[in-house]
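pls design
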């Protein structure tokens, strides 16, 4: 059920067009952004924003960035200038969602 709800917030091009209401569905959707974030690289706020902006159309990349930090998918330095993708394992439902959406991004 969560996967089906997550699929409903992405359009035919794989762009997230709205923020889900349920926290569990939000987290599932955030994994798609985590997967698109470069590994083991220090990123500026502008660089992480580029990843987030390219994957959604509802106009709130700060919400996505804060949520990814809150879910432990991203970390940032104390001064907030450098972001880094956390090396965590993607849950199976998120991997399935990502595998369905990734071909649409090419």
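designed seq:
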């Amino acid at each position: 059920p969560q996967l089906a709800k997550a699929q409903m917030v992405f359009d035919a091009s794989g762009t997230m067009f709205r923020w889900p209401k349920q926290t569990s569905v939000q987290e599932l959707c955030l994994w798609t952004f985590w997967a698109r974030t470069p590994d083991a690289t220090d990123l500026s706020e502008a660089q992480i924003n580029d990843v987030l902006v390219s994957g959604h159309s509802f106009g709130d990349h700060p919400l996505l960035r804060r949520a990814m930090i809150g879910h432990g998918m991203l970390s940032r330095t104390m001064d907030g200038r450098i972001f880094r993708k956390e090396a965590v394992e993607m849950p199976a439902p998120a991997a399935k969602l990502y595998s369905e959406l990734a071909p649409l991004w090419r």
